[in-house]
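Q: I'm building a small set of examples for a reading group on sequence design. Run inverse folding on the following structure and report the sequence directly after it, with nothing in between.
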């Protein structure tokens, strides 16, 4: 993101066309409804869930639609904050994915009791599951030992940690003025997508082993909602980034002539190289940097 060409919030709202202003108002209304529904669900959790540990997990999970919606709205209203708001929202969703897995373990009484239940019911860790059910059929099944269940947790918890590391690296690249369409940025976003899909894949393995038992607690719906939210939030951004940076999608009639002109100006500036006469040729890196 080149902040030089991203408008300030005041400029963005002052020049926003009427059609988009109406769409923004509709967005505010929808987000307001989501906030009210989330408050109602959190009230029900505090009233009817007695176990403190389970209640805390449910509060974090049920707050995810509100948190992600509010962060997305802030990024939409203040374009310069969009990258940061997206990173916070995605990290929160990844943390929710881990809390879902942790909540499943708690419902069985812990990792040791969970392992015993799986063995009593002849369940195994089957890697041939969504979204890799076709390419992982040849993988051997694993015994649901406490150690293997802990390894599954590690694969899920890596998602938010990897996302934080990637986002810090991207911010450093932005400060160093590395072009947004550089290979480094695309590789980092690709690694983030792989990390997120890995977390989703492991949760699907756990869901496949315990779906019939978890349905009585309505945990399957919670599982699928968190999974869907993370996949949507991750892959849509990843695919749009590739399309915008490689095929220049985005310069359309929807944008104003001023906005298109600014985007075109940014592309022109990227290819301009400074020229020096013999008399003004800089001799040191500092002089070169100052001249640029």
């Amino acid at each position: 993101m080149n902040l030089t060409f991203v408008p300030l919030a005041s400029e963005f709202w002052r020049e926003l066309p009427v059609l988009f202003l109406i769409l923004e108002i509709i967005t505010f209304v929808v987000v307001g409804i989501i906030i009210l529904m989330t408050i109602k669900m959190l009230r029900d959790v505090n009233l009817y869930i007695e176990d403190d540990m389970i209640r805390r997990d449910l509060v974090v999970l049920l707050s995810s639609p509100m948190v992600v919606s509010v962060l997305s709205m802030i990024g939409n209203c203040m374009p310069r904050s969009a990258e940061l708001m997206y990173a916070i929202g995605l990290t929160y969703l990844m943390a929710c994915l881990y809390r879902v897995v942790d909540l499943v373990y708690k419902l069985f009484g812990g990792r040791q009791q969970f392992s015993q239940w799986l063995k009593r019911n002849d369940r195994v860790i089957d890697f041939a599951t969504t979204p890799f059910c076709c390419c992982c059929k040849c993988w051997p099944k694993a015994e649901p030992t406490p150690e293997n269940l802990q390894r599954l947790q590690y694969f899920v918890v890596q998602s938010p940690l990897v996302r934080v590391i990637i986002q810090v690296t991207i911010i450093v690249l932005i400060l160093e003025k590395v072009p947004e369409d550089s290979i480094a940025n695309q590789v980092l976003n690709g690694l983030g997508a792989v990390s997120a899909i890995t977390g989703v894949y492991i949760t699907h393995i756990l869901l496949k082993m315990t779906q019939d038992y978890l349905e009585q607690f309505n945990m399957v719906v919670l599982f699928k909602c968190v999974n869907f939210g993370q996949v949507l939030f991750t892959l849509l951004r990843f695919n749009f980034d590739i399309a915008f940076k490689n095929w220049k999608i985005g310069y359309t009639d929807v944008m104003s002539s001023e906005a298109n002109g600014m985007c075109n100006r940014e592309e022109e500036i990227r290819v301009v190289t400074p020229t020096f006469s013999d008399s003004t040729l800089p001799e040191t890196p500092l002089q070169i940097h100052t001249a640029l």
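The first helix runs from residue 9 to 14.
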